[in-house]
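This is your field. Please look over both lines of this record.
***
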Amino acid sequence: MTAKHGDATLVLCPGFMTDRALWRDMETGLAALAPCHFADFGRMEDIEVAARELLDAVPGPLVPIGFSLGGFVAREIVRLAPERVAGLVLMNSSARPPRPEIVKRNAFLIGHTRERGFKGLSTDAVKKALHPDRREDAALIQEVKDMALRMGAEAFIKQLSIRRRDGRPDLPAIKCPALVIWSRQDELRSMKESQEMADAIPDARFEIIEDCGHMTPMEAPETVLSLLADWLRDSRIYRTVL
């Protein structure tokens, strides 16, 4: 494949307490679209620092693909180096700062973890991130829990401590092609949060995936790949999309 902006790399930015396994069922398809770099947020403490580290680690033009928390990093990459970003994908994410009750809950979880240790995400928490029909899928639930266990207590505390500023004022300045994805049964991020990003980013495309919860890369990998391939082609980010 020949990229319009050179050999643009897809930079896969995972969400809260997820690692490369988040993209497992998409990896082959992603590699067929473009070169890929899988971000590791196991030690992330600051969104700007994480964005700068990715800009340093991946040469040339980028297409950041940010899922949930990863969307905050993806947007920060655009803010810091717009000239290097060929396109932007925001999936099940938000540009809003956390609500006060979420900040309070996170502070409690940090204190509880420091006092009693980290035993992973609860089954109920994982189920809430899935489509109702997948909430008895023991294998999928275990995959999500295994990612969190691999990340561990330090990552849990650091990610809960990350300051997520209000990124909405920055959205109109995003000039690259953008794709915003939300899933119909996402109970962790609202359609309004995704819609307001798509409305504020000039000429952004907004797509809704039906019959899918928050964990879109794991629940609907083929649908996501199809959306990405169509958007890359239509946006002419690459001259040829397989």
About this structure: The chain has two domains: 9-97+166-235, 100-161. Residues 18 and 147 are 5 Å apart (CA to CA).
